[in-house]
Predict the structure.
Amino acid sequence: MNREQLSRTLQQHGAVMVLGTLVIVGSLAFDSFATPANAASVVVSSSFLAIIAIGMTFVIISGGIDLSVGSLFVLGGVLAAYGSQYGMLVALLLPLAVCGVVGLLQGLVIARTGMAPFIVTLAGLLGVRGLMLAISDEGATTYLVKDRAFAALGQGEILGLSYPVHITAALALAAMVLLQRTGFGQNVYAIGGNEQAAALMGVPVARTKVYVYVMSGLLAGLAGALNAARLSSGVTILGIGLELDAIAAVVIGGTLLTGGAGGITGSVAGVLLLGVIQSLINQVGNLTSAFQQVVSGLFLALVVVAQRLLSKAQRLT
């Protein structure tokens, strides 16, 4: 294996390697770490962030960013809990419709006006958060999930794992196929690699950008709805900083912030890596949850530096 192949392998699969290493170290250091109960806890708690990270992967590979997903997550939960009084179908479709429309509007503005995704989605973050507060009377009203079938969607289990875990796995597999095996996925890579060159090759740049933001909005809304089903309520204080966790997981997973490179496997590994770090901190016992943010931040900084060095190494070869 030459230097270029080694650099590419480390960039694409480094998160998986580090994840495996941490799991081995944690299993050796703590007796309660490698238990089925702890593993299930990490996977279940990570599933909602993983759904959001799947959509974020498409956005970042295309050269964009979506800061609105945290607000869409909590809005999706509130709308799902509110809609559950009218049945399971409304509880699912209402958050998907609203969050999908928000993604559509953001995608149209970004694609048609050329405005920076950071600014557009930052406005979306604030606007969606304000909409959620208006619906919930400034957070004073917490809607409860009233449909048992919808609640079971978040709380039921198959093979010891809750339904959201299986839904996340199915979405990840579908996203892998979409990204790696379809023309749409190749268009996403092409736009992130060089938007001008992609346009000259006939790639529908504007339409592809709109699609990735719609996808991001839909997945954030779905994650919020599933979380509401799990908690049996639309909690209004969730989602703050969730967009940063999603971005961190995607970048740790090997997706370049500049676009054009990345994958779903790495993003899911990045999400699990953050979950394992939190679990290890909990195993220590005398460290607060704030320490997890410090570790995650340091790890993200190291990954970005490593990506920069690996990119230079690939150019030199």
